[in-house]
Task: inverse folding
């Protein structure tokens, strides 16, 4: 009976693979990181070393002061926004500074060519 309880208490949203499941994440105060997936977002408190490892990951690109996008999940970059799904009412997006928008477009095109 205790095994069944353990299985029920496991949250699949908290057991994600950063590069595969996360579209973007935001780093907040005191190590609180908000991860955004396709149908969910999860907040976790991480230590400085964990945050440093994530922010230096080559899959993620810094789009503004606290937000990093998964370059492999981007569908479109337009009008200061990075889109992760088909544009429309249900699309997920985050804002990007004009300065970084051009660099991100180049990076995404380079990855698609590889």
Result:
């Amino acid at each position: 009976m205790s095994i069944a309880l353990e299985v029920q208490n496991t949250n699949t949203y908290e057991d994600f693979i950063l590069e595969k499941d996360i579209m973007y994440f935001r780093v907040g105060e005191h190590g609180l990181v908000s991860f955004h997936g396709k149908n969910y977002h999860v907040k976790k408190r991480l230590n400085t070393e964990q945050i440093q490892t994530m922010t230096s990951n080559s899959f993620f690109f810094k789009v503004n002061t606290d937000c990093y996008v998964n370059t492999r999940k981007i569908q479109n970059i337009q009008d200061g926004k990075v889109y992760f799904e088909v544009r429309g009412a249900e699309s997920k997006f985050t804002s990007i500074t004009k300065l970084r928008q051009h660099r991100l477009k180049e990076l995404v095109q380079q990855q698609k060519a590889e």
